[in-house]
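Narrative summary of target 7.
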Amino acid sequence: MAPSTPTAVASEGAWASRGGEWDCWAESTAKARKGSDVSARRLENACWRLWNMEKSAKEQQGSPTPGESSSMPKIRSSHSLQQVFNASSDEGSQSDDNLDPLRIDDAAFKERLEDAIGGCIDFAYCRFPAKQANLKYDDLPTFPIRPNFASFRNSLRPASECVVFDGCPEDPYHPSNTPIYQTATFVQPSCSEFGAYDYTRSGNPTRTALEKHVALLEQAAAAFAFASGMAALHTVMRLLRCGDEILVNEDIYGGMHRLLTQDCVNSGIKVTFVDTTDIAAVKKAITPQTKLIHVESPSNPRMKITDLKELATTAHRRGVLLSVDSTMMPPVICKPLTLGADIVIHSATKFFSGHADCTGGLVCVRDPTLAHRVAFLQNAEGTALAPFECFLFLRGIKTMHLRVERAQANAERVGAFLLAHPHVKEAYFPGRGGCDSMSLVVHRSQATGQGSMISLTTGCVDFSRRFCDACKIFKTTVSFGSVNSLIEMPCTMSHASIPAEKRTLPDDLVRLSVGIEDVEDLVADLAQALEAAAGGLAAPCTKGGYDSRFEDLPVVPNPGLPGPRDDSPSKSRDAGSEVDARRLAERLVVA
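Modeled conformation, tokenized:
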């Protein structure tokens, strides 16, 4: 990122007080080498491989080059290009007696070398010497060098961005989908050098593929995958130190509220809740100790809208970082990093998965310095996502645009239905009629749609409970972003961890996550549930044909039906049927 950009300057200012502990990242580590350094290492490795191949071939043929002994030391990848190619012309500059320059200063060999490596970097053969004068062990890369997408402008449209991506371009077999590298360890080149990967907790090719694709979608310098959304949020909080302060919007996910008020405070971090929709209130709340502002927009579950661009400008003027939990707004709808945010967090369990079959979290950053720190925490604390779940998320991303587009269209219809229904007191969503006009203008300036989340009130806690229990298609469960439509009451479910005296949401609030089913079926389900609630239904509705039991249909096979040649009396036939049924059940149990 160019240092002249305001956000980059703000990030530097926010962390300047850290004593320059990460300065080595941009200068000394193998992960952050400049393009010319990467090319040099590529050439080193290619030279190392080809030269030793030629030497071995000559030794096997028994015709060594004149003046070359069969015990001539091999060239190592740690030798610099200047040593390798210029040693013969400047023997006085040699610092390694094991390097024989006589066979390297050869134009034909150089040409074969360049033909062999071409224009691509073969990350699989990168080597990182374990000992360097200015390099610490913790500064060694946990994954190969990857592209910085912070300033990347993809010529593809959002729907194509989700699909057109090769997660393993270096794989020699060119698979159509990224393989699952289900391994804990990776064999190293030697005891004194590290390969591209060494231990899956630190880095894994499947996870690298997921993190690269997410970084591309979010236009981030780097993205990191964690075992859950809460693990991702916790990692961001670990950027703070004792005595630091974090400002948080007052309407926040229950799990985040619990993390802040029952964990972070024990580390000496001051937590201050503020209405981030009021920029003047945020300016007033910032103190010299404030290091981070964390916000959701729309907020969960009251759908309050924060002006992310204005908030980022306010934060950066005071040297404060801005973190955005954008779980409700996946990157096909909103990209907070492009609005000035420094950190974006997702519970990937929701829209990135889309099928409620795996848990995961994502942290995306614009600044390479922050990327280094997040990578360190991911490795040191062991919170990284496992390879199989990475594969599931890679698969989920391919259909994310389709799913979000369909769910969002359904949510627009559902929202219009709820606004017009007499039993719905208020409905909240970032669309027409679901928020005030100013909030709608702000949201549409930073997102391409309203999403698929809707909250509503009925004016009565018991009515809301009966409404949820009467739904047949909408499943009563926490979470959101699935292909299935979901319903819950935050005060007793997703936000139950917030003490009642500290909650800022009404007790009768109901939250809907609209899925991709036929919208006519969804509206009909909500309509019948509202009418059932109005009629005083107190127990969950377990009948209705949507539980996939189909108890009203005949079963196959049916031991109670007579065979084609059964001439026995009906009574005996019934008795025999009961015996056959029991025998069949016993065989099934044994099986």
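The longest strand covers residues 290-296.
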